[in-house]
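Newbie here. two chains, one complex. Structure please?
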Amino acid sequence: MAEYRAPVNDMNFVLQQLVGMDQIAALPGYEEASPDMVAAILEEASKLSGEVISPLNIIGDQTGVKLNEQGQVPTPVGFKDAYQQYAEGGWGSLQFDPEHGGQGMPQVLAAAVLEMWQASNISWGLCPLLTQGAIEAIEANASEAIKAQYIPRLVSGEWTGTMNLTEPQAGSDLAALRCKAEREGDHYRIKGQKIFITWGEHDMTDNIVHLVLARLPDAPAGVRGISLFIVPKYLVNEDGSLGELNDCGAVSLEHKLGIHASPTCVMSFGDNDGAIGYLVGEENKGLACMFTMMNNARLGVGLQGVAIADRAYQLAVDYAKDRVQSPAPGSKESNTIIRHPDVRRMLMTMRTLTEAGRALAFTAYGNLDHQLKGEDKARHQARVSLLTPIVKGWCTEVAQEVTGLGVQVHGGMGFIEETGAAQHYRDARILTIYEGTSGIQAQDLVGRKTLFDQGEAMDALLAEMLDTIETAQQGSERLRGISGSLLSAVEALGQTQRYLLKGAESDINLAGSLAFNYMMLAGTVCGGWQMLKAAQAAEQLQSGGDYDPKFCKAKLISAEFYMDQVLPRYLSYAAAAVTGSESIMGLEEDLF
Amino acid sequence: MAEYRAPVNDMNFVLQQLVGMDQIAALPGYEEASPDMVAAILEEASKLSGEVISPLNIIGDQTGVKLNEQGQVPTPVGFKDAYQQYAEGGWGSLQFDPEHGGQGMPQVLAAAVLEMWQASNISWGLCPLLTQGAIEAIEANASEAIKAQYIPRLVSGEWTGTMNLTEPQAGSDLAALRCKAEREGDHYRIKGQKIFITWGEHDMTDNIVHLVLARLPDAPAGVRGISLFIVPKYLVNEDGSLGELNDCGAVSLEHKLGIHASPTCVMSFGDNDGAIGYLVGEENKGLACMFTMMNNARLGVGLQGVAIADRAYQLAVDYAKDRVQSPAPGSKESNTIIRHPDVRRMLMTMRTLTEAGRALAFTAYGNLDHQLKGEDKARHQARVSLLTPIVKGWCTEVAQEVTGLGVQVHGGMGFIEETGAAQHYRDARILTIYEGTSGIQAQDLVGRKTLFDQGEAMDALLAEMLDTIETAQQGSERLRGISGSLLSAVEALGQTQRYLLKGAESDINLAGSLAFNYMMLAGTVCGGWQMLKAAQAAEQLQSGGDYDPKFCKAKLISAEFYMDQVLPRYLSYAAAAVTGSESIMGLEEDLF
């Protein structure tokens, strides 16, 4: 089967035309991110992803990973070499501070590149993704000494990082953490077990830097008593050389539905004297430190949804262009199935959900760049905070649908593992679960992101969407058509938000009951907003004349399809959201 | 994990209260199907399914099946024994003609029992399901001599049956079949390869009866040149004893996403002199013969969707009642997750989609009984024909959603294979594909079942649904509430049908473009109709007093939830259906 072809044209389009890369490149520190530089970076990343990382995707799935008797996890053939090429290419340093060896590029550009790694091989791509999260947590919270010791080696790709949150009794509920930390001079001794630790053990690098949440003996109960520690696999000497093996390691690997090549470890810390760890940030403030890392990781997982959707789409298109079966309407002879309307409907659904998701995710990363380097930080931060659960929640739910359609387009062959469609379907299934389930994202959206500010950030977003529609309504007939139903959709989102704000006070179950529908509604509407912006830009570029006219034509049709076939979902999400909590909570537990 | 618990109460309720088992038991030949007999049969089947077949489900998934060097497929431990218990219990003969050793019970009762086999173990259950289809095809089409020779042994469970349609170039497109048959005295010689042959080889019985579609040398091209043959694995002597091994067998097994314990075979016929086959029905009329079998098989696959949805629901409920995580709204301490509104929303969605699907599928089987034994055959036949693609299409699409939610309720544990939720998700994935993909069902619904009769059968269904609503509107306040939005939904289905009838003439792509949305709309609305009927019956029984009040209470809440959270989907299906074909077909092929 064909390898992954990075959607470089669409990425450049989204970055330059929708996200406003010119404004981002004007931010202090981002001067090098010119359109040419952006295009060149995307082009280079597309080679590594398509030629080196993508071919390992099926091998990894078939080989899987195992923990050997020495407690090591040998990675599938080719994984280590691909990782070295990634590190040597400087791909791990793209968006990080030049002070610690980074290239200081915008987050949104790194996001585009990240999408490529994830699309080419989600199991492999998780390792850099987790490392990136670890770097962010250390950069934002650790002492200068720790930063100097760890960040350059993580940024260079020499070492990788992990996030150790979950324990058997503490999944979504971090308040239930039990892992212990005791003070011992300038360091701490960590004891406890963590589960679901992605890339917790492997052979691609010499060292692994674990970020571990644990409790001090005198810590308050609940989430206010959690501290964050760095626990390196090998201790690091003053001169930077590696010292002794720390008292920690993987004790078993999970047998999973998908992402078979990504070792999901049960990690044990301190089976003997206790693993040596170093505090990151202040004692008992670990949760806040972890959230710096988790929020960006959530955007990253949303992007994984876009990535795997695109990969599934490419595979389905190839099959549909090749497979001949039955005459299409109006034809007397058998045709390739891409000519059959229902197959076309599936492919267009896959395509436009992917395009809308990409545009929305990149937009959130663009806001992050403004938040980090721009002047109006608070406004952009509020927008990133609002969009994060939408991107994570909606794009990963959409990934289930798109990879499912990818199987469906293949018919019977889709159920056969050799085709590859089933692997994407299996791999994608984790995305609505890790880094906070869809339910947790929805809860975040209705709680911290809507009720907490009384809808202020959402109101700002609604206003911006209405502005876009108003501009479109003054444009061509075609744009008026595309924007027509979006107006009702944006209004429905506003009404649902007001219903939530009004009803949540008197009904304690309301927020939780409508959360998922509200999140899916917001995602569907925001996706439509992005597609309208894309249509506007495409029309303008088309008349300008120096842009690929085929690309513009396709984008306009994508937007029309989205409004016809995808956007109408807002009707059911909105209708279901405003039915209250009674029928959801009505059934007594013993009647289930 | 807990074994499958057959929903005997709900099955009895649906049979007696919704399907009208009293009327079916009044049909000639069905006199024995009294409420007590029905309940006793369900009770017995629930034991075999829960105690014997269900425990083999995970073993089968983990062991899988392999073709050995002798061309045999040993089944997983316990499979053969369970099959023998099934055969000895007479379960394979329930609905068949007493003339050939059957028990002459109604189809709808057999359907309820069939649901249990499929829910307890879909891989295992496929073997009886295919055998049932083979019996139906032989019974309806073969000569008396062939019937006498084969049916009693299939009905008794002594032998099993298979359906051999698909070839590599001929999946949905049977016109492209190439398998050959040559006349030779009183029999034929069959040569060719078939793929995706479920239970094509195994060790559970002494003989396997293959039904094979093939072409005679002088046959017309296309579907009018296909004939149906019986090709037994072992030839059958005059006295009924087994003779020589026929020139056919499995040459490889597929490596699949799910149903690992069901051998999906590549079958080769006639590698040497040609496999000996016997004509079923007339030459070149094989497709019609196959359709007798395929239509019932399609209802059976729809029922598999209901079955696996119920199994996933049961597993998720058990987990949600056990897993403690975070305080629910209004609570200060951590609670079982079933108390969290979003988990409750997922469980109720699973529950009500399953209940609605069961009621709809059983209703179709009830119509089949009236068609077979009743007076107003034509009307019931039209209804079965109309409901078949809806039951197959909608219930299997719903099964994807429900098994996906089953994984989601489990959080991170859902992605771990040991939990069992992932197996249901993988197993369910085949259901929208085999026996005609969802696209094929949708095509059948818009084409043969709507355009062909100019909407007559659909109009009759719409009228019946409106009648139900009218009665409910004259009932209690609660019933008025439950039926409120269903009226708009039924009207939307009617409008969509008229849009199709009007637009299909001038736009050759319209029918194919809206087919899937039309099918999902019809399923959602029919599901609502069944839930309203269930609510009516539950309310009446509740006031009657001799029915379990808890069951009635739960059913009313289920109906309310369905109307609040599931039915609103009709809005988006209907809105998407009436946007024509332009944006679906607009993108040129080279722009994909």
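Moderator note: Chain A has a mean pLDDT of 97. Residues 286-322 of chain A form the longest helix (37 residues). Thread marked as resolved.
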